DNA sequence: TCATCCGCTGTTTTT
DNA sequence: CAGCGGATGA
């Protein structure tokens, strides 16, 4: 261990890192070095005699967990660090449940359902109940169930809770509770837990088995929780139980970055920490080491619009840096083009590498315009999130086989593969098996095993029997062979690999490659040495592998973090990360803030925190972009700029960049040809397209609309019309306006960021007041 | 039983 | 503009 590990910390950081016993809350502002503090604190604990086996550190993402592990290893060296329990809530609990699930009546090799699996089960149940799945949409029902579980409300309680029942009645879905009950029973029968069960069942386990609780209380004497502001009631209660014996709970969080309430997180957990633990020590980390002053000041001012925060004053010693660039484009595609062009430009001009850029958006669907334009410019990029590798059809199909090998009672997967590849067991047969299974109260697999008892047609019976024999042959390999060998055998026996290999279409090829990648990942899994085998004996088993990958998101795939690519992801996915140059895109009403969140103060504040998060991802340069119109549902819709833009202090904003708020030209080529390069600038086109378009010509929504009223003269703008920066305009100059033609500036008034010019247009209707932020003028003669 | 085509419907955010 | 589910015909 490095001797001077505490030396690199500032005073507050050091106070936090040196705290050993008793509850501790670290309020860590964005970029204030909380990971450093956490990792140093772990080192400090060990230095002071705490056993690594007694430390539990919980994070929200695998990425955060991995980073923490790596950094701890750097301080400690690998061997000691290996004994620490560091992981996400979900993965750690899955691991514990793997050792204890039998107590709850689940197989220890229980299957973990991702949300697609869960919705699929729900859909089956809804249909079995003869309910309309257009009304009882699986996704909606799933959300209700998920919310309930995250609040530790079981099916019984759900059905007897008056308020909940009222809500469901009002939504005209009174049977949600019954569906919840049936869903829970079906999952149990399938030997499966969904994501929320990993928390819910963990709680039930600790609550119902005092000896288990005692065991883990004793084991985890020191508990640390990152991103505490994002914990939900289930997580909160589990932590409370686990920590009750020693109360060595250290939570780190930032209420300003709470962005997961849709997942049941409640900001109350962090706000109440001091009340929960009366002797809690509170340390605030207020120095930001990440961003420039401009960026940080904007972030601070924006977040000040939210109520009820923990008081803190985030500051930085860093340089002022450049102003934040605000850029408006006509369409989503132009937005993509602007970003790609600017990345190319910044690379040249400021010697950035691809990896220095991040494009961050509110919804995954926005990625396309950026992808296309980056590809066009041959800029390598990678999208994080979206459809996970493990959600692809061919991968899910293959994994379904593996799941059945370890857990044949799991019906969802069985139905997936029973006729894939096609082996003559169609829908009719599957339905029949389902009905028999329900009637006889046995599993789907049991029916298949005993197919000869149920009068299937001989051809069908034969197909079923062959299927059963094949699955059994895989199962026979368990224990004797590792996960990779079994997977290989599955690929061979089922002909899946060969079939995909022979499919020479582009999609077929891609699918083949994906399967190869899956096989490789399994191989890698079996060949990587285990981290520790303390709680689970066979870490390399197929069962472990399956549980692990379900909890993996696309962002976790591969450790190619160092690869030199531009990163695209949602703002949610970017939390905890930092980039030299950030593009925060799609800053429009109904998109960011989301149209679904603008009706309540709470939700709007969460969107604002999201805006805060995206701003604070940037180290030195930040671009904010929005488009006048973009495709949604295949339809072009007009957008107002985001209300959040109005909350930014004007003095840190540069609207002059490439046609943003003020002037439509690039500082580089001085010609506004950044987009399209057709010499036809955006403002020009917009005016021609819709002179009275409802959207504002530029800038965040102005209080009063400055559009000159009607009677536009038929002035045709000069072909080289390029608006100039209002800052350099002076009375007496001759200028051109797109509609009013040529004129002379009479007076200038108002602050720089909102200058109003009085211009006399001899042919354009005489004297006009022009708000320069919204209507552009080109200087003709000084 | 299976393949193809048409039409509908949906967009937050994630472990 | 997807992607999916349902209907339809072979």
From TrEMBL:
Gene Ontology CC annotations of this record: cytosol; DNA helicase complex
Catalytic EC class: isomerase
PROSITE patterns, A to Z: UVRD_HELICASE_ATP_BIND (PS51198), UVRD_HELICASE_CTER (PS51217)
Catalytic activity entry: ATP + H2O = ADP + phosphate + H(+); Couples ATP hydrolysis with the unwinding of duplex DNA by translocating in the 3'-5' direction
Cited InterPro entries: DExx_box_DNA_helicase_dom_sf (IPR013986), DNA_helicase_UvrD-like_C (IPR014017), DNA_helicase_UvrD/REP (IPR000212), P-loop_NTPase (IPR027417), UvrD-like_ATP-bd (IPR014016)
Example GO biological process: recombinational repair
A single GO molecular function term of this UniProt record: DNA binding
Protein's name according to its UniProt entry: DNA 3'-5' helicase
């Amino acid at each position: 261990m490095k001797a001077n590990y505490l030396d690199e910390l500032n005073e507050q950081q050091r106070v936090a890192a040196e705290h050993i016993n008793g509850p501790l809350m670290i309020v860590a502002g964005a970029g204030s070095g909380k990971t450093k503090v956490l990792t140093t604190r772990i080192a400090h604990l060990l230095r002071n005699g705490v056993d690594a086996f007694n430390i539990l550190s919980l994070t929200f993402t695998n990425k955060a967990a991995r980073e923490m592990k790596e950094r701890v290893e750097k301080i400690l060296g690998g061997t000691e660090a290996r004994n620490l329990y560091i992981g996400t809530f979900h993965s750690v609990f899955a691991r514990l449940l793997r050792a204890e699930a039998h107590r709850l009546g689940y197989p220890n090799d229980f299957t973990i359902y991702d949300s697609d699996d869960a919705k699929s089960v729900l859909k089956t149940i809804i249909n079995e109940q003869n309910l309309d799945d257009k009304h009882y949409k699986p996704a909606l029902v799933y959300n209700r169930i998920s919310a309930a579980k995250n609040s530790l409300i079981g099916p019984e309680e759900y059905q007897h809770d008056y308020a909940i029942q009222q809500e469901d009645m009002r939504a005209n879905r009174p049977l949600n509770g019954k569906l919840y009950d049936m869903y829970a029973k079906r999952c149990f029968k399938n030997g499966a837990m969904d994501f929320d069960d990993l928390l819910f069942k963990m709680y039930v386990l600790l609550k119902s088995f005092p000896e288990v609780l005692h065991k883990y209380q004793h084991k985890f004497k020191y508990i640390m929780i990152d991103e505490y502001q994002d914990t939900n009631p289930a997580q909160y209660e589990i932590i409370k139980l686990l920590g009750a014996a020693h109360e060595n709970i250290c939570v780190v969080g930032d209420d300003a970055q709470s962005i997961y309430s849709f997942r049941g997180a409640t900001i109350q957990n962090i706000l109440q920490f001091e009340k929960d633990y009366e002797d809690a020590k509170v340390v605030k980390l207020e120095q930001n080491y990440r961003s420039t002053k401009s960026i940080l000041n904007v972030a601070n001012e924006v977040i000040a619009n939210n109520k009820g925060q923990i008081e803190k004053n985030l500051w930085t010693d860093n340089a002022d840096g450049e102003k934040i660039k605000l850029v408006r484009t006509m369409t989503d595609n132009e937005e993509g083009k602007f970003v790609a062009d600017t990345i190319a430009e910044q690379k040249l001009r400021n010697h950035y590498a691809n990896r220095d850029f991040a494009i961050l958006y509110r919804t995954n669907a926005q990625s396309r315009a950026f992808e296309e334009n980056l590809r066009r410019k041959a800029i390598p990029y990678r999208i994080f999130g979206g459809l996970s590798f493990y959600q692809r059809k061919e991968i899910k199909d293959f994994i379904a086989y593996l799941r059945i090998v370890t857990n044949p009672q799991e019906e969802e997967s069985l139905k997936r593969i029973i006729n894939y590849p096609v082996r003559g067991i169609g829908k009719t047969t599957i339905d029949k098996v389902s009905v028999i299974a329900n009637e006889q109260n046995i599993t789907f697999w049991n029916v298949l095993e005993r197919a000869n008892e149920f009068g299937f047609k001989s051809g069908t019976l034969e197909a079923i029997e062959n299927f059963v024999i094949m699955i059994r042959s895989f199962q026979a390999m368990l224990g004797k062979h590792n996960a990779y060998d079994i997977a290989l055998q599955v690929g061979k026996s089922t002909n899946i690999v060969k079939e995909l290999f022979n499919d020479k279409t582009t999609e077929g090829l891609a699918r083949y490659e994906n399967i190869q990648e899956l096989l490789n990942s399994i191989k890698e899994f079996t060949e990587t040495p285990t981290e520790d085998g303390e709680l689970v004996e066979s870490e390399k088993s197929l069962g472990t592998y399956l549980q692990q990958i379900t909890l993996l998101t696309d962002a976790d795939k591969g450790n190619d973090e160092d690869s030199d690519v531009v990163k695209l992801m949602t703002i949610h996915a970017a939390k905890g990360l930092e980039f030299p140059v950030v593009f925060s895109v799609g800053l429009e009403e109904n998109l960011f803030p989301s149209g679904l969140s603008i009706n309540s103060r709470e939700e709007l504040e969460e969107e604002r925190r999201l805006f805060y998060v995206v701003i604070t991802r940037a180290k030195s340069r930040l671009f904010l972009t929005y488009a006048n119109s973009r495709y949604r549902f295949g339809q072009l819709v007009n957008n107002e700029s985001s209300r959040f833009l109005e909350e930014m202090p004007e003095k840190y904003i540069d609207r002059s960049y490439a046609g943003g708020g003020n002037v439509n030209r690039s500082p580089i080529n001085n010609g506004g040809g950044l987009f399209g390069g057709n010499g036809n600038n955006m403002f020009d086109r917009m005016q021609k397209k819709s002179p009275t378009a409802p959207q504002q010509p530029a800038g965040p929504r102005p209080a009063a609309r400055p559009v000159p009223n009607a009677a536009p003269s038929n002035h045709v703008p000069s072909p080289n019309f390029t608006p100039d920066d209002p800052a350099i305009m002076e009375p007496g100059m001759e200028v051109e306006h797109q509609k009013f033609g040529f004129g002379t500036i009479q007076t200038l008034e108002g602050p720089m960021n909102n200058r109003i010019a009085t211009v006399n247009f001899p042919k354009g209707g005489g004297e006009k007041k022009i708000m320069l932020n919204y209507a552009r003028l080109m200087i003709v003669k000084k």
